[in-house]
Design brief:
3 copies of one chain form a homotrimer. Chain A is of the alpha+beta class. Chain A folds into 2 domains: 115 residues, 3-layer Sandwich (Rieske Iron-sulfur Protein); 276 residues, Naphthalene 1,2-dioxygenase Alpha Subunit, Chain A, domain 1, CATH 3.90.380. Chain A contains 13 helices and 19 strands. In chain A, the strands form 4 sheets. In chain A, strands 12, 13, 14, 15, 16, 17, 18 and 19 form an 8-stranded antiparallel beta sheet that branches. In chain A, strand 15 and strand 16 form a beta hairpin. The radius of gyration of chain A is 23 Å and the shape is globular. Chain A starts with a helix and ends in an 8-residue tail after the last helix. Chains in contact: A-B, A-C, B-C. Chains A, B, C: Keywords: 2Fe-2S, Iron, Iron-sulfur, Metal-binding, Oxidoreductase.
């Protein structure tokens, strides 16, 4: 439960809001690299933290991310022409380069120096891990890109996608650290993630009320969800919440690893980023087939958009037969679609003042606190956590540990990676 | 004409509004019985008086009507599974029975008693007359179900349907007691109601300015609309307005009887309930064919919804040729579609501060007063009218009476029914 | 750049606004004559300056333009029947003639005189130039219809159409006097206007930063845009802005002449009127084919509506290949579609407080001033400019003039027409 004030603080991220100020201190996943496939390709509209922007790749391959609207008379540059190292407004031909400088202004006399006085809002971009990243904060405070495992493996080992979710980012994020719901909502569907053995599925079903142990770390939170496996052992699903919006899915035996970022588009919608990867080998043909089927993390989209085909307007194509037969708890096909359905059903901005939280919500309660504290701290001049890229070199885990062993001790070697390990490809044999 | 304040009072029925408080003292038609066809069938979303609810029929056939959203984290229970005597939330498995008790909470440890502290908002339901009724008021003040004729005849004698109307309930209700418009709007279409003789049609056309005589009764209003039939006789169409939203259509010779309830969904839309019945015999094959054709009270709906196929987005499929040819005054096919078109065209909430009412609006003026008075009285602690079920044993009438006979005297025997008469089947021979 | 206050003043035209008061002093193009093709045809909904109206042509051919809603109970008269010299409401049969008088009220007793007390809001209409015009101001101040060339030529010489544009009228109007953008936005598409020689196209491309000379005239503004043609000559494109919303396109050699009116529907949308005409001969088969193709001023519409097929929901069917190939600067097919795309992309109401205007915006800056001054003057009792019909007898021009000749002198004979010239058909041989 949150007060109305804290809920507002948590969920509003537009320009000038305290949470918006916090988020502008981090790198932000903006587009898939493949959305700007080549130099001088068409620009793409991107809204981030409430700001309407336009991304383009110039003749030299450099990425620009600029205000969608031309400073002259506020016409959308979406209709502009991307060529010769700049994006040219279709109305009067003002042309801007990727750094936001006006490099041509044909509507003014050649002798005019008005061009030199005009710039367009522009944010620096970098590409890594198949993602175009941007930084929307004060230039002098720009950190290094985070170093998450999926970003660092070869392209062949990874699949990345983004899709629009029609609710505030935080309730989507909450789903990403909520191990509890995996036993219920995904009971019928985790096999869609590519689980090759039924073991984790059985363990999840056996104990549906995990006990949470949550530790604050430099990067955010380390969250252990403990389930009784047998008389001697606990089944631990361990995940990290990395500031400001990353969550990692504890692995399922045999399946690719997975994770998410939940990035505010505006206060009423977010971009759900999904990545699937294998640390030690390329994604297999079967992995790709499964992921592209919509059964796993990645969903099928309406062509030319980032909206899912199964969406709230069609009740996510609910199949009551499948629900009755136990194939899907919600009658909705696919792990990510299940999440999207319940999260969007909370309303565009969940009202956290009227909840009834239980012990299984411990990680969520803590995550809200961490984000709110970071926000309030920044208002008091205290620097945000999780800016150090190396702190992102963590791994989620899914392990059996003896009853008397603390998860941070027993799973220690699973919870981090070194660059050396990464280069040699970490084996996944100990995953349940 | 109403003041802005009275119009607000009349049309706002959400939780906590004075009119909402009044309406929560009556039984409310919520769903057709057939919408929950069998035990453990899928739940159905129902919005009543601005409250978003979910209806389900449990394993034993009991009906539940509960808050659409799980108290835990406010996820919609629409995606829940209805089985083993309860509705289980798809997110974390919290399960509620028809009385609103939480009967399972798998996300909490078995030893937890949190479950016993959690309930969900729930309203009692009863089934009668092919309708699932609910009561949303203080439990200790729950009355008996009303005893209207259509509810009491055998199922074979009756057809019931509901459809969404995209305007406030009261302007829809006004149409139900407005005999005057029958001579104009329905001039071309009353035959669609199954009128076997043209007599009533001719009488309606002959005198288009009925004089109204309105009497306040225990159940609401008794309304006589008098038209000149010939030198010696008047043609009386007599209808009742029963609190809080029922209207009865005066019969047409040869046709089934008909009536409506106009139930607020929210302030901008209402559910129009229609019932057709024969007191003395099953509906004939021809009756059913006519009603299902959309020509009568019941309209064709977009599959899977309660929205009519002919709706405001397509101008009710207006046919200007049919209008020119006199087949339909508005060019709209079907009696109910005609009503819906003009009522919705008044705006979602009609502005009653700028009307020009005439003598033919006498019944409407009186009905507004009755409902507003009941509302204001309740605010002063005076109990609402029309709660006694027996007062609903009334019948509308359509009769010729000598000029010098008052309608309440001349039509007296037509205006009520006894349970004994009902059992033997009342003949309809005297209807014009 | 405008202050927020002036932007509000400029863009709000509803009943009771200062700009609304100004515009109600002028004749307003309401419908194409062909939209009311014959006596007693169906009525047509028209919203003007925020007022929802209904147009109909009565049995005698007279045009009525009345409040869309019946004064009785505010039902839309759109569903009414147009016959026997009046429009009859479908609900209770109240009937109104084109002057707004209630001529029949069948719901009231024949002896009642209520009918004589009821009128409906009604505006006078006239037809000229294929357009139904209305006047919504004080009756005693009604001026004569303007006398623009396209209105006065024979029907065979003219094509008129209107289409909905989903933005405020003024940013659309700004496009109409903005010669500068012709060199850029229309660089690839002016041939779509029917330019038979490439000369004007070459001249436009050669100098993309025209210098503006703007003179205030009785009718509004005379605007000269000067481009360097060669060492000895300037290429002048001369256009008029006529109060309150007319703009004229400087001719292109060989093509029909063209012009626009940008009429507020409500504050968020406007009706773009387009007229193409030849002063001296009927439009040719080729002219008609080109105009109906969507390449010129007139756009293809969604059947039964005034909305364009290429619209903001489909990004105006942008063709990035055509854009890359230089066939169209914006990748949008057709001169008018290009304009609509950029103008609507400014938002429903452009924010003029954050612009960066250059010297090429001189005409726009002046036009805003002229309209705002007329508005403020009227508030102080000073009569509006441009009400004298004869002042509208102007012509746009497209000419080469020696460097040392002022455009008002050099082009003088091209900038007006007399009724005598018109009767004999003005030749167009001197157009560039």
């Amino acid at each position: 439960m949150l007060s109305h004030e804290d809920n507002e603080l948590l969920t509003r991220t537009g320009s000038g809001t305290p949470m918006g100020d916090l988020f502008r201190r981090y790198w932000i996943p903006a587009l898939e690299s493949g959305e700007l496939p080549e130099p001088d390709c068409p620009p793409v509209r991107v809204t981030l933290l409430g700001e309407q922007l336009l991304a383009f790749r110039d003749t030299n391959g450099a990425i620009g991310l600029v205000d969608e609207f031309c400073p002259h008379r506020k016409v959308s540059l979406f209709f502009g022409l991307n060529e010769n190292c700049g994006l040219r407004c279709a109305y009067h031909g003002w042309k801007f380069d990727t750094t936001g400088h006006c490099v041509d202004m044909p509507s003014e006399p050649p002798e005019s120096n008005f061009k030199d006085k005009v710039t367009i809002k522009s944010y620096p971009c970098e590409e890594r891990g198949g993602v175009i990243w941007t930084y929307m904060g004060p230039p002098e405070l720009k950190p290094e890109l985070p170093e998450q495992e999926w970003m660092l493996v070869p392209d062949s080992h990874r699949l990345v996608s983004r899709r629009l979710q029609e609710c505030n980012y935080f309730q989507a994020l909450e789903g990403g650290i909520d191990s509890s719901h995996v036993s219920i909502l995904h009971a019928g569907s985790v096999l869609g993630l590519g689980v090759s053995k039924g073991k984790s599925k059985d363990l999840l079903a056996k104990d549906t009320s995990p006990k949470f142990e949550v530790a604050e770390e430099e990067y955010g939170l380390l969250i252990g969800a403990k389930r009784k496996a047998n008389e001697e052992e606990n089944y631990w699903r361990i995940t990290q919440f990395l500031m400001p919006w990353y969550t990692m899915i504890p692995p399922f035996g045999g399946a690719p690893r997975g994770g998410h970022a939940w990035v505010p588009v505006d206060d009423d919608s977010c971009m759900t980023w999904s990545w699937s990867w294998r640390p030690d080998q390329p994604l297999t043909e079967q992995d790709m087939k499964r992921e592209l089927s919509g059964l796993g993390l990645h969903l099928k989209l309406i062509e030319g958009t980032k909206r899912t085909i199964a969406n709230k307007d069609n009740d996510y194509m609910i199949d009551r037969e499948a629900q009755k037969n136990g194939l899907s708890t919600a009658g909705i096909i696919g792990v990510s679609a299940e999440d999207q359905a319940v999260q969007e059903s909370q309303g565009t901005i969940a009202d956290r003042s009227a909840e009834r939280l239980g012990t299984s919500d411990a990680a969520i309660i803590k995550a809200r606190r961490v984000v709110l504290n970071a926000c309030k701290n920044l208002m008091n001049g205290i620097e945000p956590p999780g800016l150090n890229p190396e702190t992102h070199r963590v791994r989620s885990a899914s392990v059996l540990l003896p009853n008397n062993v603390a998860f941070q001790v027993g799973a220690q070697k699973h919870l981090h990676f070194t660059m050396e390990q990464l280069e040699h490809g970490m084996a996944e044999e100990e995953v349940v």
